[in-house]
């Protein structure tokens, strides 16, 4: 089920899926180079939705090279579906990271990007400038009903004194009753619009983009007694072109009273709203900065905003319950005639307040909304963890170290086990263990580690044998037991699923040259791929089902080495040593070429290589100095060694 414009609608409450991001861990989301977003983008406007969280918690979004900040981007309770717009900087690899402190599914939709040279300055980490619980930025006291609090922001840490606009997250904490918060430049009249809508005893965030008012301050008004927290994520210097905030937000649509359109709920139809050329927004604006509010919903559902004329994209901006008031900020690309379109899968009244607009492409470039991540649908790795072998120069004795793929920071070293001679493979599992296989002397060794590097389990195979981990989904190990003998072992139960004996080109299981190179297993464990040596030193790939029965053989020719099969069972990765230049080649399972890239593009022979998802490959150079992630549908993206420390890459 996709959170978007499908009949099933809002995500139902229940346990997270197998792809859910575990607690206290980070997921890397590639942004630059995807779809309309150029490879040199420095920031992105993304809508992040949490669904099916196992317990109350929060999410932070940040550039991957920076540690997760203390500030949060959205908060949630168990079984809630909560979205929030985030404007975040990207790291030098064009990625952003999402860290959560509770197990949950995540959906990420991109709405725009910050181009290189933009006057918008995303902060490396959000900076908290208001917390009434702690007396930061205001008195240590709850804001009373009908009260306005003025908070200095220009000249605070991270924000220069000449900032003209600030982009910050406003969070309402445990209000005494239902109501709303309005954010506006100090010195301006209180607007007749809302920035955050809430119910009693909840924690509700929303992104706010506001002009800096009198005294370098922004003002917040609340209709209910509450605590307020605000974290600034970016700023724009005064006078910068391309991003303009209105003196006060203007309401351009209210379907309850017929403002801007018919006085009728949005209910499965597409509603056009004129933005450009109205309410202070010029006709040539490329995007609008709006606050979307859903109210009086007939049933749980979701709504989406997008440029008219492009068709309905499979994304969402906000999720709502029956008779619930829910608001979320949005950056919406406008159609050439200045319109934006709204739709919802359940009857609901919609309110749209425009706070500012974008002109040109220098500051913020809007895009047609596109889904970047849905952990319920894809095969993204559950844990952004890897393992590397530390040599004596780095450690008194060779040792395995668990590390964070996003930052390279150490997560711990297991004790109570002998050191590997070398590591063959590393796989995070969906329950956030890390399984490592390698060689110790002449024996194959397999270990299971927890997320902090503690040793959970260790197994050793007899002499001249090895373990090769290839399934993060079912805990399966493909084990070479002898030169021409292999088995598939369930590491959860120690049971042997099936045994592969000597294989030859004629399709039999006896006689002729053989040997096994495990390539992968599909996420449903129905298809296994192995590389073999066929007659005349030619190599091939053969496929077996979940019981070890031979399904087919694909000869791949001389000079080609099979490397990996994608977890969705759609693609093979091969290395072609006879091409000029030598190349990595992606094919279908029956050998039809999909893509290729010459290795001279990276100035390295990248090994080991493996699929990270159905559409991305990661690898390290043999000398451990270079790393690379190749997104098949986007330009290849070399990575700095501090981004993915080499030696072994966790995939």
Keywords summarizing the entry:
single chain; mainly beta; Jelly Rolls; 4-stranded antiparallel beta sheet; 0% helix; disordered C terminus
Written description of the protein model:
- The chain is mainly β.
- Among the domains are: 120-238, Jelly Rolls (Sandwich); 381-461, no CATH class.
- The strands form twelve sheets. Strands 1-6-3-4 form a four-stranded antiparallel sheet, with no helix packed on it. Strands 5-2-7-24 form a four-stranded antiparallel sheet, with no helix packed on it. Strands 8-15-10-13 form a four-stranded antiparallel sheet, with no helix packed on it.
- Count of alpha/pi helices: 0
- Unreliable residue stretches: 1-23, 378-382, 504-514, 602-609, 639-651
State which percent range the strand residues make up.
over 45%
Average residue-wise pLDDT: 76
Globally, the shape reads elongated
Helix content: under 10%
Q: Give the name of the CATH architecture of one domain.
A: Sandwich
Radius of gyration: 27 Å
End-to-end distance, in Å?
25 Å
| Main pleated sheet | 4 strands, antiparallel
CATH topology name of one domain, in short, is Jelly Rolls
Look at the helices and sheets and give the structural class.
Answer: mainly beta
For the secondary structure, the number of strands is 47
Please report the first level of CATH classification, the CATH class of one domain: Mainly Beta
Strand order of the largest sheet: 1-6-3-4
